[in-house]
Protein backbone atom coordinates (compact mmCIF):
# COMPACT_ATOMS: atom_id res chain seq x y z
CA UNK A 1 0.00 0.00 0.00
CA UNK A 2 2.86 2.38 0.85
CA UNK A 3 4.47 1.86 -2.55
CA UNK A 4 1.16 2.51 -4.33
CA UNK A 5 0.63 5.75 -2.44
CA UNK A 6 4.18 6.96 -3.13
CA UNK A 7 3.84 6.17 -6.82
CA UNK A 8 0.49 7.96 -7.06
CA UNK A 9 1.82 10.96 -5.15
CA UNK A 10 4.20 11.57 -8.05
CA UNK A 11 1.34 11.28 -10.52
CA UNK A 12 -1.57 13.53 -9.46
CA UNK A 13 -3.56 12.73 -12.60
CA UNK A 14 -3.38 8.98 -11.88
CA UNK A 15 -4.33 9.59 -8.25
CA UNK A 16 -7.35 11.65 -9.26
CA UNK A 17 -8.38 8.95 -11.73
CA UNK A 18 -8.08 6.27 -9.04
CA UNK A 19 -10.25 8.33 -6.68
CA UNK A 20 -12.89 8.86 -9.38
CA UNK A 21 -12.87 5.15 -10.26
CA UNK A 22 -13.41 4.28 -6.61
CA UNK A 23 -16.16 6.87 -6.26
CA UNK A 24 -17.90 5.53 -9.35
CA UNK A 25 -17.76 1.97 -8.01
CA UNK A 26 -19.16 3.00 -4.62
CA UNK A 27 -21.82 5.25 -6.13
CA UNK A 28 -22.96 2.42 -8.38
CA UNK A 29 -23.19 0.13 -5.37
CA UNK A 30 -24.61 2.42 -2.68
CA UNK A 31 -25.90 5.54 -4.44
CA UNK A 32 -24.86 9.11 -3.59
CA UNK A 33 -26.30 8.91 -0.07
CA UNK A 34 -24.17 5.94 0.91
CA UNK A 35 -20.57 7.03 0.37
CA UNK A 36 -18.00 9.21 2.08
CA UNK A 37 -14.64 10.59 1.05
CA UNK A 38 -12.99 8.32 3.62
CA UNK A 39 -14.53 5.22 2.01
CA UNK A 40 -13.56 6.40 -1.45
CA UNK A 41 -9.99 7.08 -0.33
CA UNK A 42 -9.70 3.62 1.23
CA UNK A 43 -10.92 1.91 -1.94
CA UNK A 44 -8.63 4.04 -4.11
CA UNK A 45 -5.62 3.17 -1.96
CA UNK A 46 -4.84 6.73 -0.91
CA UNK A 47 -5.01 8.47 2.43
CA UNK A 48 -7.94 10.69 3.27
CA UNK A 49 -5.82 13.85 3.16
CA UNK A 50 -4.84 13.11 -0.43
CA UNK A 51 -8.48 12.60 -1.38
CA UNK A 52 -9.37 15.97 0.17
CA UNK A 53 -6.56 17.63 -1.80
CA UNK A 54 -8.26 16.56 -5.01
CA UNK A 55 -11.89 16.98 -3.89
CA UNK A 56 -12.62 19.35 -1.01
CA UNK A 57 -16.12 18.01 -0.35
CA UNK A 58 -18.19 14.91 -1.02
CA UNK A 59 -20.49 16.98 -3.25
CA UNK A 60 -17.58 18.04 -5.44
CA UNK A 61 -16.47 14.44 -5.72
CA UNK A 62 -19.97 13.33 -6.74
CA UNK A 63 -20.18 16.15 -9.29
CA UNK A 64 -16.83 15.14 -10.80
CA UNK A 65 -17.98 11.53 -10.91
CA UNK A 66 -21.13 12.61 -12.75
CA UNK A 67 -18.90 14.34 -15.30
CA UNK A 68 -17.10 11.05 -15.79
CA UNK A 69 -20.42 9.27 -16.27
CA UNK A 70 -21.37 11.88 -18.86
CA UNK A 71 -18.20 11.12 -20.80
CA UNK A 72 -18.79 7.37 -20.55
CA UNK A 73 -22.37 7.76 -21.79
CA UNK A 74 -21.24 10.01 -24.60
CA UNK A 75 -18.77 7.40 -25.83
CA UNK A 76 -21.20 4.50 -25.40
CA UNK A 77 -24.07 6.22 -27.23
CA UNK A 78 -22.41 8.57 -29.73
CA UNK A 79 -18.82 7.36 -30.05
CA UNK A 80 -15.58 9.31 -29.91
CA UNK A 81 -16.24 12.99 -29.04
CA UNK A 82 -13.39 13.97 -31.38
CA UNK A 83 -15.33 12.71 -34.41
CA UNK A 84 -18.78 13.93 -33.43
CA UNK A 85 -18.69 16.90 -35.78
CA UNK A 86 -18.21 14.56 -38.72
CA UNK A 87 -21.65 12.96 -38.34
CA UNK A 88 -24.48 14.01 -40.60
CA UNK A 89 -27.83 13.63 -38.89
CA UNK A 90 -29.27 11.97 -41.99
CA UNK A 91 -26.68 9.21 -41.67
CA UNK A 92 -27.17 8.44 -37.98
CA UNK A 93 -28.58 4.98 -37.25
CA UNK A 94 -31.42 6.00 -34.92
CA UNK A 95 -32.27 2.43 -33.93
CA UNK A 96 -28.65 1.66 -33.04
CA UNK A 97 -28.29 4.87 -31.02
CA UNK A 98 -31.50 4.06 -29.11
CA UNK A 99 -30.24 0.54 -28.42
CA UNK A 100 -26.92 1.89 -27.15
CA UNK A 101 -28.61 4.26 -24.72
CA UNK A 102 -30.96 1.56 -23.42
CA UNK A 103 -28.09 -0.92 -22.91
CA UNK A 104 -25.89 1.61 -21.11
CA UNK A 105 -28.78 2.59 -18.83
CA UNK A 106 -29.61 -1.04 -18.10
CA UNK A 107 -26.00 -1.88 -17.26
CA UNK A 108 -25.38 1.28 -15.19
CA UNK A 109 -28.65 2.23 -13.45
CA UNK A 110 -27.12 3.90 -10.39
CA UNK A 111 -24.61 5.88 -12.42
CA UNK A 112 -27.33 7.11 -14.76
CA UNK A 113 -29.44 8.13 -11.76
CA UNK A 114 -26.50 10.08 -10.33
CA UNK A 115 -25.92 11.82 -13.63
CA UNK A 116 -29.60 12.69 -14.04
CA UNK A 117 -29.86 14.11 -10.52
CA UNK A 118 -26.75 16.22 -11.10
CA UNK A 119 -28.16 17.47 -14.40
CA UNK A 120 -31.47 18.40 -12.76
CA UNK A 121 -29.59 20.37 -10.10
CA UNK A 122 -27.31 22.11 -12.60
CA UNK A 123 -27.89 25.83 -13.29
CA UNK A 124 -26.54 25.25 -16.82
CA UNK A 125 -27.52 21.85 -18.26
CA UNK A 126 -25.99 22.76 -21.61
CA UNK A 127 -22.56 22.66 -19.97
CA UNK A 128 -22.89 18.87 -19.78
CA UNK A 129 -21.42 17.30 -22.96
CA UNK A 130 -23.83 14.37 -23.13
CA UNK A 131 -26.96 16.49 -22.63
CA UNK A 132 -25.69 19.08 -25.11
CA UNK A 133 -25.12 16.43 -27.78
CA UNK A 134 -28.31 14.47 -27.03
CA UNK A 135 -30.62 17.47 -27.19
CA UNK A 136 -28.56 18.97 -29.99
CA UNK A 137 -28.76 15.85 -32.13
CA UNK A 138 -32.53 15.72 -31.67
CA UNK A 139 -32.77 19.38 -32.63
CA UNK A 140 -30.70 18.82 -35.76
CA UNK A 141 -32.98 15.92 -36.65
CA UNK A 142 -36.12 17.98 -35.96
CA UNK A 143 -34.83 20.65 -38.33
CA UNK A 144 -34.74 18.21 -41.26
CA UNK A 145 -37.51 16.91 -43.50
CA UNK A 146 -37.06 13.50 -41.86
CA UNK A 147 -38.96 14.62 -38.74
CA UNK A 148 -42.58 15.36 -38.02
CA UNK A 149 -43.21 19.10 -37.65
CA UNK A 150 -43.64 20.78 -34.30
CA UNK A 151 -41.38 18.61 -32.10
CA UNK A 152 -40.60 20.15 -28.71
CA UNK A 153 -37.02 18.91 -28.59
CA UNK A 154 -36.33 19.85 -24.97
CA UNK A 155 -39.42 18.04 -23.68
CA UNK A 156 -38.74 15.02 -25.88
CA UNK A 157 -35.12 14.84 -24.67
CA UNK A 158 -36.16 14.86 -21.02
CA UNK A 159 -38.89 12.28 -21.63
CA UNK A 160 -36.60 9.88 -23.47
CA UNK A 161 -33.72 10.12 -21.01
CA UNK A 162 -35.91 9.93 -17.91
CA UNK A 163 -37.69 6.86 -19.27
CA UNK A 164 -34.43 5.20 -20.28
CA UNK A 165 -32.92 5.77 -16.84
CA UNK A 166 -35.98 4.88 -14.75
CA UNK A 167 -36.83 1.68 -16.62
CA UNK A 168 -33.80 -0.22 -15.23
CA UNK A 169 -34.79 0.81 -11.70
CA UNK A 170 -38.35 -0.41 -12.27
CA UNK A 171 -37.06 -3.62 -13.87
CA UNK A 172 -34.56 -4.20 -11.02
CA UNK A 173 -31.69 -4.61 -13.45
CA UNK A 174 -29.18 -5.13 -10.62
CA UNK A 175 -30.82 -8.50 -9.92
CA UNK A 176 -30.72 -9.66 -13.56
CA UNK A 177 -28.10 -11.55 -15.52
CA UNK A 178 -26.58 -10.26 -18.75
CA UNK A 179 -29.12 -11.94 -21.04
CA UNK A 180 -32.04 -10.61 -19.03
CA UNK A 181 -30.60 -7.09 -19.03
CA UNK A 182 -30.15 -7.19 -22.81
CA UNK A 183 -33.75 -8.34 -23.22
CA UNK A 184 -35.02 -5.56 -20.96
CA UNK A 185 -32.91 -2.99 -22.79
CA UNK A 186 -34.34 -4.21 -26.08
CA UNK A 187 -37.87 -3.80 -24.75
CA UNK A 188 -37.13 -0.21 -23.77
CA UNK A 189 -35.53 0.60 -27.12
CA UNK A 190 -38.35 -1.04 -29.07
CA UNK A 191 -41.06 0.94 -27.29
CA UNK A 192 -39.14 4.20 -27.61
CA UNK A 193 -38.76 3.63 -31.34
CA UNK A 194 -42.38 2.57 -31.73
CA UNK A 195 -43.65 5.69 -29.99
CA UNK A 196 -41.39 7.92 -32.07
CA UNK A 197 -42.40 6.20 -35.30
CA UNK A 198 -46.13 5.63 -34.79
CA UNK A 199 -47.29 7.24 -31.55
CA UNK A 200 -49.99 5.48 -29.51
CA UNK A 201 -53.28 7.06 -30.64
CA UNK A 202 -55.16 6.55 -33.90
CA UNK A 203 -56.01 10.08 -34.99
CA UNK A 204 -59.37 9.19 -36.52
CA UNK A 205 -60.70 8.18 -33.11
CA UNK A 206 -59.37 11.25 -31.29
CA UNK A 207 -60.27 14.29 -33.43
CA UNK A 208 -60.06 16.73 -30.50
CA UNK A 209 -56.52 15.63 -29.70
CA UNK A 210 -55.56 15.80 -33.36
CA UNK A 211 -56.93 19.34 -33.57
CA UNK A 212 -55.07 20.41 -30.46
CA UNK A 213 -51.82 19.11 -31.92
CA UNK A 214 -52.48 20.85 -35.23
CA UNK A 215 -53.09 24.13 -33.41
CA UNK A 216 -49.90 23.66 -31.41
CA UNK A 217 -47.87 23.23 -34.57
CA UNK A 218 -49.49 26.30 -36.13
CA UNK A 219 -48.84 28.40 -33.03
CA UNK A 220 -45.10 27.62 -33.12
CA UNK A 221 -44.67 28.81 -29.54
CA UNK A 222 -41.34 30.68 -29.40
CA UNK A 223 -40.84 30.24 -25.64
CA UNK A 224 -37.17 29.81 -24.65
CA UNK A 225 -35.55 26.58 -23.56
CA UNK A 226 -35.65 26.08 -19.80
CA UNK A 227 -31.90 25.49 -19.89
CA UNK A 228 -31.50 29.03 -21.25
CA UNK A 229 -33.49 30.70 -18.47
CA UNK A 230 -31.90 32.36 -15.47
Automatic annotation (TrEMBL):
The keyword Heme does not apply. One of its GO terms (molecular function) is DNA-binding transcription factor activity. Gene3D superfamilies: Tetracycline Repressor, domain 2. It comes from the Bacteria. Residues 36-55 bind DNA. Pfam families: TetR_N. Residues 13-73 form the HTH tetR-type domain. PROSITE patterns: HTH_TETR_2. Keywords: DNA-binding, Transcription, Transcription regulation. The keyword Chaperone does not apply. This is TetR/AcrR family transcriptional regulator. It comes from Sphingobium terrigena.
